[in-house]
Write the structure tokens for this entry.
Amino acid sequence: MADLVPFHDRDGTIWFNGEMVPWRDAKLHLLTHALHYGSAVFEGERAYGGAIYKLNEHTERLFESARIVEFEIPYTVEQINEACREVVAANNLVDCYVRPIAWRGSEQMGVAAQHTKTHVAVAAWDWGSYFPMEERLKGIRICSAHYRRPDPATAPCKAKAAGLYMICTIEKHRAERLGFSDALMLDYRGRVAECTGANIFLIKQGVIHTPIPDCFLDGITRRSVIALSEKRGFEVVERVIMPDELATFTECFITGTAAEVTPVSAIDDITFTPGAICEALLADYMADVQPSNADVAAE
């Protein structure tokens, strides 16, 4: 990809352990624990018109993820909130993606990491729609994944932890090689779960159905869309959905900070027609994320 701009070689500044540093100077050592053992937690946030949507909810989830994987972030929630705002402003960004991350450092190498330092950074960059707008409006195509979301007894599935995304990357790449935009993952029991980085909703007879998030993240965008649906008077049912039910639904969409609200036109050979409910919730969500509704400094 000739036009690919690598993330390590860009202009701008990054908040790194409490200081704003030049983008190219935000570096880690080869023997950083997180690189070898996946000991990092992170968030994905979007700013619209310069204000970060649901900022405090994202930061609180970052701290909860760190608690689950057993390390302590050496800052307060408000300090991380302010760092996120500072990074957006310092890079002169208006509509952008924001990535806070906390990780175990290089003080100790091995599975045990009791004496490592917890590092924290926040970066932000321009990032448009996760899917091309033309594709998004007509609905994206999704294939079935091979890997499944793990049993909560085998992985800290309620944490937004780096290591849990390895199988998502594998499935995303496989989907793209096959000409799809994403992959639908089942859970360890064979139930419909989520896509590689987004929650899923399915519609029939005017009712919205979505899987119970008992072994994957209950996304912040997911919760926002449920609230918007109920505000419109749509019935939302959180329940077990089996793969053999997919053909009974008429509309489908996915949600996430990156994906926002994106209609789906097909899962494998099962087709859907993005209709009135998809269109209404896409419009409602894009209105909800505007600066007047986003988390701003005063909040």
Remarks:
- Residues 55-68 form the longest helix (14 residues).
- DSSP finds seven helices and 16 strands in the chain.
- Residues 133-288 form a domain with the D-amino Acid Aminotransferase; Chain A, domain 2 fold (CATH 3.20.10.10).
- The helical segments are 33-37, 55-68, 77-90, 133-138, 166-177, 220-232, 276-288.
